[in-house]
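> example.struct
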């Protein structure tokens, strides 16, 4: 059996760690932004009979970005709902084959959505239109779509790699190796 270079493996772990931290940081910033903006809007509305004109749109775009980036985080941390009642009863080799097929199907989905979202953002860029209330181009506010699907594809590739290279003796989840 060929041993891997520790240096190359460490660089891979550092890159994964950077991606993990960026993903978590973006999620934290987006959630904080949504919470603070909503709180300030409620206080302004009910205490001062005023408000921020762009807060609803900003919160909506932030929530959408949170969902798109959160998909990959859910795959990485194994927190998505899994319907594995049937597959757990299968023999290990068949269960592994079904899991590989499921990951392949998820990769196809992520690739199609990545392509579609890139086309969408590109068209918004070509049109040059701005958001209704937020003073920013729409393409900039929707760029989290392709980013989220690219991260999702990366996480499924990671999960597939671990599934293909797992000898069953340990849990090689991406979260534990980060």
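> example.seq
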């Amino acid at each position: 059996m060929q041993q891997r270079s520790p240096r190359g493996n460490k660089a891979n772990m550092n890159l994964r760690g950077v991606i993990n931290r960026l993903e978590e940081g973006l999620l934290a910033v987006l959630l904080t932004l949504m919470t603070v903006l909503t709180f300030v809007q409620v206080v302004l509305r009910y205490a001062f009979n005023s408000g921020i004109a762009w807060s609803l749109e900003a919160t909506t775009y932030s929530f959408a970005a949170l969902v798109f980036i959160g998909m990959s985080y859910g795959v990485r941390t194994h927190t998505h709902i899994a319907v594995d009642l049937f597959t757990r009863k299968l023999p290990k080799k068949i269960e592994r084959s079904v899991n590989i097929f499921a990951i392949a199907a998820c990769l196809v989905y992520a690739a199609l959505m990545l392509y579609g979202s890139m086309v969408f953002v590109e068209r918004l860029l070509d049109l040059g239109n701005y958001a209704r209330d937020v003073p920013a181009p729409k393409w900039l506010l929707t760029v989290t779509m392709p980013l989220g699907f690219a991260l999702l594809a990366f996480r499924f590739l990671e999960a597939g790699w671990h599934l293909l290279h797992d000898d069953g003796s340990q849990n090689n989840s991406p979260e534990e190796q980060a």
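> remarks
Confidence is low (pLDDT under 50) at residues 1-7, 169-178.
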